[in-house]
Amino acid sequence: MSKLIVVVEDDEAIRFALMMRICAAGYRVETAVDGAEALEIIQQHLPDLVVMDIRMPRVDGLTALHILAGDDATRDIPVVMVSASAEDQDSALEAGAKYFLRKPFETDSLLAAIECATGGVDSRKQGNIK
Prior knowledge:
alpha/beta, Rossmann fold, 6-stranded parallel β-sheet, about 40% helix, about 20% strand, globular
């Protein structure tokens, strides 16, 4: 069975584009519009990886990441954090994100991060993929 990726993004157009590209690469995808919805989906499905925006309504990505890191059932799920602000990189990685991508990013960079974080080819250093 293909790996499950949860995409958490409040912008509908970006969420849809990411879902389509990740599905086209052979992954199953669940989506959420904010951190609160993501936490419910992640607890229910225990995905192989989460792609999460940082700046979202209700529960932001960093808060959701801290909650995931504090839960035995979800702490080992790799998270790729994305943000339009380069200033978010350090806080995302310090909070436990496996990778950080700055928007706008090439979907190939995201797919490389997904592949590396889910145990595929690990030819890039953990942290910031360009």
